[in-house]
Every structure is written in C-alpha cells, then in structure tokens.
Write a structure and sequence with these properties.
3-stranded mixed sheet, single chain, alpha/beta, 581 residues, 7-stranded mixed sheet, Anaerobic Ribonucleotide-triphosphate Reductase Large Chain
Length: 581
C-alpha cells in the first residue's frame, strides 16, 4: 500500500504509481511532495509561459485553471508530471532523429540519442537510408554490414546510458521500409528475445506494396544507395513473413507510411519517415511528442436516467489542455539546436483520450457495436474541432507556428494556427493508472488482472479489479463474493450464468472482441485524429497467420496509419495477465 496521503480522488494503485515514478524525492529517496503539491508544481511551471506573451491571459488565472483540470484528473500529461519545475526540463517523452548512409550521420545520431536517453526520453529512427548488408563500400572495398548491425549498436548504447543513471528506461523505435533489401532480416531481428531488447520495430508499408499484395504481384526491393533494384520478391510472401513474426512474437508492428504522409500538415518542412516509440506520433526529423490525454469518465454525471456526458465541460477542458500542451513547447529543454528549431517551428501537439471503455460500460454500450463507433467519432471530431479553434485563438494571442506558410492550412481556408497538429491517441498505460481508468481507447483487457514489469516499478505487481464493473454490478445486485471470485480467476463475465446478458455485452473484454472490431474502432477514432493512434488488436491464442494478414489488409483499407497485433500468450512474459493471480 502506498504511503502517500492525499484528499484527491486518486485510486490506491494510482498513488503507488505517483510514488514510484512522479513525486519529487530528495537525494536519499524520500518523497518530498504530495499529489496536490505535484499538481501545483506542474500548473505553476506551465502557466509561467504566459508571462512571455503580453497579449495573453495572466499567468495567475491560467495557473488556477491548469491546477483545476490536473487535480480533478480531467486531464493528464505524463512527462510534465515528472519533469515540470525540476532540473530535468524535457517535457516530451519521445523524439525522432534522422539517419543518413554515412558514419558521420550514424554516429552523430548515436551521440544525440544518448543525450535524449540520458534525460529519460525515447527515440524513433528510420534506418531505411542505410545501404543493405553486402553492398560494397567503395572507400574501403569491404561489404556493408547493413542497418540491423547499427540497430544493435544503438541498442547497446541505450543500455549503457540506462546503467549509468538515465532518468527513466527509455527505448527506441526502429523503422525500415518494406522495400529495403534487408527487410527479411529486419522482420526476424527480434525473434530471439535477447536481441534488440530496447527496441520496438515497425515495417513502413507503402501503397505500392499493398497494391502488389492485393494483385498477387512481385515486388521490388530497392538499394537506397543508388535506387536500383536489389531483388524481386513475392509481395504476399513478404506479407506472410511479417505476419508470421507478429503471430509468434507480436513484432514487428506496421505503419502505413504513405497514409501518414497524406495527412502531413507541413509538407513544405519535410517528409515523415518515422514514429515515436509506441507508434501513435508520426514525426519529422528532430520533432518531439508533446502529448496529453482527456480522462473521459470524469465527464460523466450520474442521473436517474443513467450516466450523461457533460459536453460543455469537455469543451472547457479540451481548450485548456491545448494551451497546456502548447506552453509545454516553450518550456521544453531540447538537447540539440535542431530539435529546438523544428519543434518551435511546427509546434506539434497531440491531445488524446483515456477511459473510453469506462464510458461505454457506464452507458451500457458494447465496445463492439455501431453505437460505440458513433461515440468514438463524435468524441474525436469534437476534440479536434474544438482544439483547432482554440489553436486559432492562441495564434491570435501568441502568433501562428513559424512554418505556417509551409503548411496545408491556407489551402484548407485557415489564416492562422498555433499548432501544426492537435490530436493523437497514446496508450496511456501508466497515466491511466493514476486516473483509475482504462488505457487509451482500448477495451477492458479483463475485469481482473495483474500488471507487472512497468518501468521504474521494480518488482511491484498491481492487481486490478475493474472499478466500473464493481460499481455497476453492485447497483444491479449481482456482486456476490462468489461471482467476484470467479471473475478474479477468469477475468471475464462472458461465461458466468449469474451475470445478466446486457452486462455481459457492456463489459466485453479485449479477448471477447473479434480482431475485426478492434480494427473498426481504431479506424473510427483515426477518422478525426490528426496524428495517429496506439492500439493493440488483441487476438485469441488459436488465431492463424492468415488472421494476422487479414488484420493488416483491413487496417490499410480503413485508412489506419498503423496497426499492432498481439496474439494471446505469444510471449512468455506479458505486462497484463488475466485474473488476480
């Protein structure tokens, strides 16, 4: 049990996370602040930015508003919770760094990545410009070692940084284009779990590749050094290998790189080639994730007719959250000048949601239903529209982002905008624990589960019993100890006869939902999300490799920007396990 005391509505597991990860400590490791003081620290620090802009609101009034939305847990932003107002002023969880095909670039990026990792932020890279293994190096007369060899170098470097005192364990996202000659090696790079342990990996899939898959055509792998065809392969064979690896180990993920660039709002600045560590934030070289999430269940009001969503309060908090994230850019400490330039030039932010499954359950809406898809679209359309309107107002106060003239906004009919993007949906795996709600837009993983292996949590295991189900079932009179014990073992109510059918539908869990519905939900949110989405397509243990292939094709056809699958028990260790074991 946490020793942290607070009058705020924070669950016990949330207090444990705050104590382990976010509250300030002295040199001896003693906690120095309460949650209230933490939120005061964040609000005061972020509001201080207003003093830079004489036409803006007073810092004092903004501080009051920021404290209100933070302490009420209507808005959460993870990295500022730890770093705002402290010596480490990096307020972004991840950056993307470019890599060119020469040692100066590769080792320069390695150095820059070390600076980012030391501050506790993760890094994404596109390794696609590095020539393939076996290609000759004219200056030495020796064959190149290829991108995978340099990924191992980057992996080892981050391990060293972690061991000498990184703020937190921050990893990498490695991306390789599907048309790179070393793509087969890349797909298999993590089949040995002892390799690239600090990397997530994703294949950047192109329209040309998906067209070749659908027509069962051959597909050319291109040497990035000279643009010549290196090898011709069967597109379906290549897709099969991606699916086989994901089926067995949950990696690689895939990103649809052409779909991502179709929605690049600053094409005049550059082309997007990579994403952040979890995949929800496509970024230009040197850009950062500036992310936060609206806690949806905090906007539900209980009435005699049921739970009603407060859309007016939602608008108020969205507007304040946009200002908060925009201020984060001014305060952020960037390890190198290029990061400062592009982040101040684009002012990209990503506001998302958490607790979506809770809202559905309270309102009696099954996750795998048309009503749920409709609510998803409504929530994100409202957020993006309000957020963009607030960004225009901020542009009146503080000016448009400097690269506005290189953006699509004039073509879209806007004459000003403070931020090049507004919305992103992150996984919120840790911050959702603080708020006591479900992560991101995921369904309930189970109604009882054990969470482990979180960064900086050590050996601490957190048993999660779904609070929404406990509350709703108690009102319905179906909360006997016997029923709760049964749920604690199996994690689901689907096969418990004593549970009414409508509750079984409302409290459907991740493994009760078909992969097709997981993808439909991601696509519904993506329709009105500027950036991208982290969501896992959970698949039953008995799912086939062809089932995984079908998920990729469906996600592409529905215009998702990427997709990750996880077949149950495909790894020996997983962060969430069903039941309170």
């Amino acid at each position: 049990m946490s020793k942290v005391l607070t009058s705020l509505d924070i669950p016990e597991n949330g207090l444990t996370v705050l104590e382990k990860r976010y509250l300030r400590r002295d040199e001896s490791g003693n906690v120095l602040e309460t949650p209230e003081e933490m939120f005061e620290r964040i609000a005061k620090t972020l509001a201080s930015v207003e003093n830079k802009y004489p036409t803006s609101r007073s810092a004092e009034s903004v501080e009051e508003d920021f404290y209100d939305i933070l302490s009420s847990l209507k808005f959460v932003s993870g990295t500022p919770m730890r770093n705002a107002g402290r010596s480490n002023r990096i307020l972004s969880a991840c950056f993307v760094l470019p890599i060119e095909d020469h040692l100066t670039s590769i080792y320069g990026t390695l150095h820059n990545a070390a600076l980012v990792h030391r501050a506790g932020a993760a890094v994404g890279y596109d390794f696609s410009k590095i020539r393939p293994e076996g290609d000759m190096i004219l200056s030495t007369g020796k064959p190149a070692t290829g991108p995978i060899s340099f990924m191992r170098l980057f992996d080892f470097s981050s391990e060293v940084i972690l061991n000498i005192g990184s703020i937190r364990h921050a990893g990498h996202m490695g991306v390789l284009r599907v048309d790179h000659p070393d793509i087969f090696k890349f797909i298999d790079a993590k089949k040995d779990y002892s390799q690239l342990t600090n990397f997530n990996i994703s294949v950047a899939i192109t329209d040309a590749f998906m067209d070749a898959v659908k027509t069962d055509s051959d597909f050319n792998l291109i040497n990035p050094r000279d643009g010549k065809v290196w090898e011709t392969v069967s597109a379906r064979k290549l897709l099969r290998q991606i699916a086989e690896s994901a089926h067995s180990s949950a990696e690689p993920g895939v990103i649809f790189i052409d779909e991502i660039n179709r929605h690049n709002t600053v094409p005049g600045v550059g082309k997007i080639e990579s994403v952040n560590q979890c995949g929800e934030q496509p970024l230009l070289p040197y850009e950062a994730c500036t992310l936060g999430s609206i806690v949806l269940p905090r906007f539900l009001n209980e009435t005699q007719e049921g739970y009603v969503f407060d859309w007016n309060e939602y608008e108020r908090v969205v507007r304040l959250a946009v200002r908060f994230l925009d201020n984060s850019i001014d305060l952020n400490e960037y390890p190198i000048q290029e990061m400062y330039d592009v982040n101040h030039g684009n002012r990209r932010i990503g506001l998302g949601v958490m607790g979506f499954a809770d809202v559905l359950a309270y309102q009696g809406i099954p996750y795998d239903s048309e009503d749920a898809l409709e609510l998803a679209r409504k929530l994100m359309k409202r957020m993006t529209d309000i957020g963009r309107d607030e960004s225009m107002k901020l542009a009146e106060e503080k000016g448009s982002f400097p690269n506005f003239d290189k953006s699509v906004f004039e073509k879209w009919g806007f004459d000003r905008m403070r931020n090049c993007t507004i919305t992103t949906i992150a996984p919120t795996g840790t911050t959702s624990l603080v708020a006591g709600v479900s992560g991101g837009i995921e369904p309930f993983f189970a109604l009882a589960y054990t969470r482990q292996n979180m960064e900086t949590m050590g050996d601490t295991k957190l048993v999660e019993l779904n609070p929404v189900f406990k509350k709703v079932s108690q009102k319905r009179g179906v909360n006997s100890n016997e029923i709760m014990e049964r749920i604690g073992v199996v994690g689901s109510v689907r096969d418990i006869d004593a549970i009414p059918d409508d509750l079984k539908r409302s409290f459907v869990t991740a493994h009760d939902i078909s992969p097709e519905w997981h993808v439909k939900m991601q696509a519904a949110f993506q329709e009105f999300t500027d950036n991208a989405i982290t969501k896992t397509v959970n698949m039953p243990e008995q799912s086939t490799i062809e089932d995984v292939e079908n998920v990729y094709i469906q996600a592409y056809d529905l215009k998702c920007k990427g997709v990750t699958v996880y077949r149950n028990n495909s790894r020996d260790t997983q962060v969430l396990t069903v039941g309170a074991k």
